[in-house]
Amino acid sequence: MGEQAAGQPTMLVLTRESRGMTQAEVAARMKELGGGAAVSQGYVSKAEAGRLVIAGDRLNLFARAVHYPVSVLCADPDVHGVGVGLVHHRKKASLGGPALRRVHAELALSRLQVRALLTAAQHVREHRFRRIEIDDFNTPIDAAIEVRKEWGIPGGPVRGLLRLIENAGGLVLVRDLGTQELDAVTQWTEGEAPLFLLNADAPADRFRFSLAHELGHLFLHPEPGPTATQERQADEFASEFLMPAVDVRTELKGRFDLNRLLDLKHRWEVSMAAIARRALTLGVISDWQYRNVMVEMSALGYRTQEPGSVEREDPCLMRYLVDQLYTEQGHTANTIADLVGLLPDEVELLYPAGAGTATR
User: Fold this and answer.
1) What number is the average pLDDT over the span 317-339?
2) What pTM does this model have?
3) 186 and 209 part of one domain
4) Is residue 300 part of a domain?
5) Is residue 360 domain-resident?
6) Number of folded domains in the chain?
7) Is the pLDDT at 84 greater than 80, yes or no?
8) How far apart are CA 212 and CA 237, in angstroms?
9) Rounded to 5 degrees, what are φ and ψ at 219?
């Protein structure tokens, strides 16, 4: 990349927001890296708006400030298909705009990385995701039953949910999303497989339900709609997918206290809160019983962190493909960094050599 290459406004914004930095913070970091040469927040704002051209030394400073190669800042977003598009996420209402923009930027750049890795590894595979139309006669619950059947999932708890998604052609990455207010986010770009971005900080017991919730969005919601309605439908899908009524109903009957909830948590690998909600929606417990158990959980601090552990799953496909690049094609961290648009130190962290050896 020559010195005369110019930064693309869209890429300047995405790289900055993916780091969770403000324009003022980027300007301060550029000033620090440049030995005190004046760089203002207004300068960064104008560059991101396309009102001035950032190139040469200033472009190099910007790249160093956001810790990306200059080539990424200069990439044509139209050519590379950079964009957020239709995104679904299971988030708390308290998640603010800056945090959400960071997640969306991370998602867009992760899509570029995955695309580059798939191309380099010559990995072509059809995915088994599709849209399922729902109405008064075909509900989210029916859709979950249909997907379990299509994917060959036997009755009872879902084992290896991440592996099932990857075997169906889904692309899964785990990233530090810089917030505890969001567990997972998905994007399905036309002509490509769905991409799942999972929060490394999400508790394992909540993680699986959030992942199934995202599955619900992918199968049920081709377009944005009323948020409350789509969230409820995705929850209904996730509940039936992970805890089929035909299997779980009898297990929820009888004694219903915290010890019983903990036993069920270990068997079904979802949170105690999700199991209690499932028991209520299936009519196995009353509103009074549900309120009592939730009050007790709150008093014990279980609404923040529950007792009992659920094994955390890790995605395998990307690690496997990267390992192929290292071992079969002779790539190094430097050459993979060039492929995916990261610096070598971050490649070694996110795509380490040898990490996928035992996954296939």
Assistant:
1) 94
2) 0.89
3) yes
4) no
5) no
6) 3
7) no
8) 8
9) -75, -30
Same domain, 199 and 339: no
With respect to residue 256, please indicate whether it lies within any of the assigned structural domains: no
Task: Give the pLDDT confidence score for residue 148 in this predicted structure.
Answer: 98
Mark whether 136 and 181 lie in a shared domain: yes
Q: Quick one: residue 359, left, alpha or beta (phi over 0 = left, psi -120 to 50 = alpha)?
A: alpha
Of the three residues 194, 210, 242, the one that is the final residue of a domain is 242
Average pLDDT over residues 193-203: 91
Residue 360 has what pLDDT? 40
Note the pLDDT of residue 90. Answer: 63
* For range 93-98, the mean pLDDT: 74
Look at the block and give the residue holding tokens 């203002």. Answer: 40
Q: Say if CB 7 and CB 62 are below 8 A apart.
A: yes
Q: What percent of the chain has pLDDT over 90?
A: 74
- 165: containing domain: 87-242
Same domain, 40 and 68: yes
Cα Dmax for the chain: 73
Same-domain status, 148 and 214: yes
Question: Which of 189, 216, 242 is where one domain is finished?
Answer: 242
Q: Are residues 135 and 186 both part of a single domain?
A: yes
- CA–CA gap between residue 311 and residue 214 (Å, rounded): 19
Tell how strand 182-187 and strand 87-91 pair up.
antiparallel
Shared-domain flag, residues 330 and 183: no
- H/E/C letters for each residue in the chain? CCCCCECCHHHHHHHHHHCCCCHHHHHHHHHHHCCCCCCCHHHHHHHHHCCCCCEHHHHHHHHHHHCCCHHHHHCCCCCCCCCCCCEEEEECCCCCHHHHHHHHHHHHHHHHHHHHHHHHCCCCCCCCCCCCCCCCCCCHHHHHHHHHHHCCCCCCCCCCHHHHHHHCCCEEEEECCCCCCEEEEEECCCCCCCEEEEECCCCHHHHHHHHHHHHHHHHHCCCCCCHHHHHHHHHHHHHHHHCCHHHHHHHHCCCCCHHHHHHHHHHHCCCHHHHHHHHHHCCCCCHHHHHHHHHHHHHCCCCCCCCCCCCCCCCCHHHHHHHHHHHCCCCCHHHHHHHHCCCHHHHHHHCCCCCCCCCC
